[in-house]
């Protein structure tokens, strides 16, 4: 967890600050999303409402309309999620571009070349299915419904495309 402040993680946080200083393209996912926020002065901690897990809808926020990368994205799209910690407070200058019903910071823009997602654009339904099955007892203990989560699994092309668009736009 980012809040563990492990030496390797704090080293990477310093690297993120240096990368931002030289405007290196950065795309963070889940832990990377949280670590970017922490490195740049935001607050990361356990989500007050507990774990977010499953295939959930992501809603773009008004700021996404002006964002070069997201301005033509659908207003909402499904994404695969699994996290306990979250960005509680954005770093100065960062902008939240999307949310879920559980988490107000699903996509954050940190600068012209730096963005991150709390959700997992790299996951397929099979990845999330394996995680749900492996954590079945824990999810039930936390009052989640694994069967409902499994039934809700679907492909998430728009969520995946955010990461792909970021990468491809840097290669042009």
TrEMBL record:
Tagged with keyword Transferase: yes
Lineage: Bacteria, Pseudomonadati, Pseudomonadota, Gammaproteobacteria, Pseudomonadales
Domain Glutamine amidotransferase: 10-130
InterPro entries given in the database record: ChyE-like (IPR044992), Class_I_gatase-like (IPR029062), GATASE (IPR017926)
SUPFAM superfamilies: Class I glutamine amidotransferase-like
PROSITE patterns xrefs: GATASE_TYPE_1
Coiled-coil regions, chain positions: none
Pfam families, sorted: GATase (PF00117)
Domain of life: Bacteria
Single GO MF annotation: transferase activity
Protein name in UniProt: Glutamine amidotransferase
Keywords: Glutamine amidotransferase, Transferase
GO cellular component, one term: cytosol
């Amino acid at each position: 967890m980012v809040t563990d402040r492990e030496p390797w993680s704090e080293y990477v946080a310093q690297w993120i600050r240096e990368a931002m200083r030289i405007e290196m393209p950065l795309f963070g996912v889940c832990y990377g999303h949280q670590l970017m926020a922490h490195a740049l002065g935001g607050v990361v901690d356990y989500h007050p409402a507990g774990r977010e897990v499953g295939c959930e809808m992501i809603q773009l926020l008004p700021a996404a309309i002006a964002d070069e990368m997201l301005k033509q994205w659908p207003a909402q799209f499904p994404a695969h999620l699994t996290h306990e910690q979250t960005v509680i407070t954005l770093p100065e200058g960062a902008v939240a571009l999307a949310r879920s019903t559980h988490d107000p910071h699903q996509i954050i823009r940190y600068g012209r070349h730096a963005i991150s997602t709390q959700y997992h654009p790299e996951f397929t339904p099979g990845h999330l299915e394996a995680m749900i099955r492996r954590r079945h007892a824990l999810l039930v203990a936390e009052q989640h419904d694994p069967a409902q989560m499994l039934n809700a699994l679907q492909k998430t092309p728009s969520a995946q495309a955010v990461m792909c668009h970021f990468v491809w736009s840097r290669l042009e």
